[in-house]
Amino acid sequence: MVFLIIDNPLVICNKLKQIDMKLERNIEKILRIALEKREENKTFRQLLQKQNANYVDALVNQLNDTIAAQIDCLECGNCCHNIRPIASDKVLINYVEPENIEKYKYSMGFACKNLDGNKCIIYSERYDECRMFPYLYRADFVLRLPGVLQNYEICPIVFNVVEQLKIKILKT
Q1: Per-residue pLDDT for 19 more than 70?
Q2: Does this model's pTM top 0.70?
Q3: Quick one: DSSP state of residue 11?
Q4: Cα Rg for the chain, rounded, in angstroms?
């Protein structure tokens, strides 16, 4: 791979919305590819740190708009089946029964207590963390990449945004 460094925050091309992207939705395949691409993603993370942060944020936002519109989170629900807590006991109590807090506090993934199959039983009143997932609209994407790459393993939106971002920034 040859890396291109983009240091000019250019206006993102509106044609991005018109691109017919082949999106990966298969969770098992996403996990397998994510594990295979760990080294590539480390290299990509280093490259992104050299990019203009505002440009990367704008590109991620536009990719997210395009991709999220094509993937039904309510059908997937994989994030709710793979909660990866970085939270206090007070926050964690929202997702697990009180007697299970210690068990899940440092877990790499568990199902939320508010699920019925793939459906959230408190969806209209769900917590802010759930509403904001997968957090791609938050500023400083480049600085948040370690957490984003954890979600890349479980979320089709994050996976496809990162893969499309590589295409936009890397030239093979």
Answers
A1: no
A2: yes
A3: P
A4: 17
